[in-house]
Amino acid sequence: METTVASPQAKEAQDFMPINGTDYLELYVSNAKQAAHYYRSAFGFKALAYAGLETGVKDRESYVVVQDKIRLVLTSPLRSGTEIGRHIDKHGDGVKVTALWVDDATKAYEEAIKRGAKSFMEPNAMEDAHGKVVRSGIHTYGEVVHIFIERNDYNGIFLPGYKEWNTSYNPEPVGLKYVDHMVGNVELGQMNEWVKFYEEVMGFTQIMSFDDKDISTEYTALMSKVMSNGNGRIKFPINEPAPGLKKSQVDEYLEFYEGAGVQHIAVATDNIIQTVTDLKNRGVEFLQVPDTYYDVLSERVGEIDEDIDALRPLGILVDRDDEGYLLQIFTKTVQARPTMFFEIIQRKGATSFGKGNFKALFEALEREQELRGTL
Ligand code: FE2
């Protein structure tokens, strides 16, 4: 994950918001206990920490699961009339918090606020016997928030207020390593607003863009711009729908999520064939492209290390850019509403996002939409 830049000094000077990586993602879900079981049994996450009635928290319950560098926090309310309950009623299950690991949460907050961010949480310190964590937070698109986490003086299990979650049920991991990128869907006409937000408020740069000529099928289209922080460890593509003959997948998301939100979380693996085999064996469902995709694959991407006959039955996709190639696959949506899903990605040099697969993928998505009657 090490990224070098041409001129470290120049980059350092302009990076007013250095970020070490994704700290955790918190999902508000209607049944955190069952969601935690799903992510452990199906996705190979391990039980890490718990907060709730047993730790003195009265209004909510949170389960934290981990796989290598990926931490998911699954939170449900314990009673009616809560903010979390309202969020779930409106959006269904979804990502509420993208927590970013920083060295100085107070400075990150002040820099962002100074540049126009809307405050979600003022800097505050939490302490327990294992040390101190400072947190602060700002709003981004929809009801999603970024929380800055400063944890250099902390060696507890997760955060103060959480206790270790001990369980004898610990399924094998499936080889998921870290969050590669996290994609947001925003309303028509809003993409450039949020691009500006990440540029001006967070010091990100736009590293790529796709328009409806790149990303369109007979029926649907979308536009996307990819924002990256200074060291490249945080990548946030932002999509907006483009007019098509029928309702696009982004429109469907916006309708069912009732607004902007996180569309997919891409997680990296070093061995996508093994990872996807394991996930499928555990019941994770993936979008399937037609078999003809593989008939022209070598022609399109050239020589690759993997045997195409091993990729074909799993439905793994391949794309190439100037720097190398990547393998990727997308799950079906993972909650009741047709909103959020996961991407599994293995990069072999490529730094892009699989543009060459968009058409085949969107046609697969449209087949799913058709079944739901929402195309
Ligand atoms: Fe992606």
Structural class: alpha+beta
CATH topology of the largest domain: 2,3-Dihydroxybiphenyl 1,2-Dioxygenase, domain 1
Main beta-sheet strand count, sense and barrel state:
9 strands, mixed
Instruction: Please give the CATH architecture of the largest domain.
Output: Roll
Name of the CATH first level of the largest domain: Alpha Beta
Order of helices and strands: HEHEEEHEHEEEEEHEEEHEHHHHEEEH
Radius of gyration: 20 Å
Task: Summarize model confidence as the mean pLDDT.
Answer: 92
Bound molecules: fe (ii) ion
Distance between the termini: 38 Å
Strand order of the largest sheet: 6-7-8-5-1-4-3-2-9
Enumerate the spans where pLDDT stays under 50 for 5 or more consecutive residues: 1-10
- Going by CATH, the homologous superfamily of the largest domain would be 2,3-Dihydroxybiphenyl 1,2-Dioxygenase, domain 1
Helix content: 10-25%
Number of helices: 11
**Strand segment count:** 17
Structural shape:
globular
Beta-strand portion reads: 25-35%
What is the number of independent domains? 2
